[in-house]
Amino acid sequence: MGYYHAPFRNWYPLPYNHFDPQTQRYFYGGQWGAAPYETITNISQPLPQAATLAQAQRTDIVIVRGGFGSSYHSHGGFIHS
Q1: Among positive and negative, which fits the CA dihedral 45, 26, 31, 15?
Q2: What's residue 20's pLDDT?
Q3: Residue 38 is assigned to a structural domain of this protein
């Protein structure tokens, strides 16, 4: 199947913006170009304030993951229904 190039909504044999050092060209959307293909998808970035806010909110989140191993031990090796 290959690699999905989102701006072109299709699959290709090489990764998006793959660089070939021998030809000094970039592969995107089934063609080669002298520069990487830029779209709003791959050149956009959040404003510093948005990134700071997202990071601050993220540090308050505590994720406790159980899983099969902890369930097994907490029930003495048996799973009760």
Answers
A1: negative
A2: 98
A3: yes
